[in-house]
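for ur thesis appendix - Protein TonB. copy paste whatever u need, i formatted it the way the template wanted (i think)
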Amino acid sequence: MKIVKSVCMAAVLASGLFVAPAMAMNDRETVRVVAPEYPRGAERRNLEGAVSVRYNVTESGEVADVEIVEATPAGVFDRAVLRALEQWQYAPADEVTEGVEQVFNFAFAG
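the 3d part is after this line
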C-alpha cells in the first residue's frame, strides 16, 4: 500500500527556523511525531532544503526501512531526518504499512 503525504505542519524551533514534516494522512494514526533539528552547520551557512523519504511502518508502529528518495542539498539534512524518524511512533496494526512517503522542508522563518 502506497501512502503519499503532504506537508501540513511546521515545527518552530527556538532559533526562529522552521522544519516542516508532513503529518499522517492515512488510516494509520501517528502516536508520536518528532520534528528534525535544523543542523547547526546548515543554519550557520543559511542553507535551506528538503528531504524526501520512503519507509515502512511495522505492526507495532515503528518506522523501518527508511530510504532517502531525494535530498536537496544532498547530505545536509539527511541525518537530522533519519534521527527524527527513529523517534516516530504509529498506532499498532494487524499488518505492515509499506511505502509511506514523507517530505521534510527546512526553511528559515520570515
